Description:
With 263 residues, the protein is an alpha+beta fold.
Amino acid sequence: FNDFKDKVPLLEEYLDHAIQYTNFLEGIIGIDEPKKYLLLFENSSELRPTGGFPGTYGVVSFSVGGLAYFFVDDTYNLDGQLKKNIIPPKQLQHITPTWGMRDSAWFVDFPTSAQKAMSFFTQEAGYKVDGVIVINPDIVSNILKVVGPIEMSEYDLNLTVDNFLESIQEEVEYGDNRIQPKKVVLDFGPRFLEKLYSANSEKWMKIFNVLMTGLEEKDVLLYFSGAELEKFTITEGFGGEIKNPSTGSTGSLQASSGQAGDY
């Protein structure tokens, strides 16, 4: 009894943490109100401050706790909808004369880059999202390790944990479809979701572990416009924010420097 009594505070801590995570997940998947998020698939083979170049984006919507909508497209297609010329930071100007969502991952402080991506997205797509989720391709590969390979016969591909990124990149860069080189990614998305839908509870526990490891290793980054969700994200270390060493608080380098191109 004394041993159990000594462990009660620890048990209470575990339960409290579980409740916080439950509330956090319910907030993300739209239990009380619909939620819509911008997904950025960052390719770490082409480095950017937040992890990689976001050449492909997606939009995922949740309603009443369920998936309502999922869409994937080439970031360049969306940037083509921008109706005004936005001059990029000076350091980016030797790469591109115009700034778009493809180069929004310019700030080391992820919340700042996420806000910039949301701003571009709103201007280009015509509607707002409730947050940004960045995913490194390694996450997809590790999930394939759990759910199994995906056959894409029209591309003569069998995508597995061992060849996913290499095969996708080769098809995009050297495949026959030069008009829509990233169509392979668009075609992959629904099949990947189908694999997730059909996964049993045992596989979902493994998928959950993949995602949690990704959050810990910053292969997944989260930003939410809602104050409570973002507060939890920062507290748990999932937000990729840069701390101000002089104060110990979090804050963007953009805010301290005043101008995007100053650092």
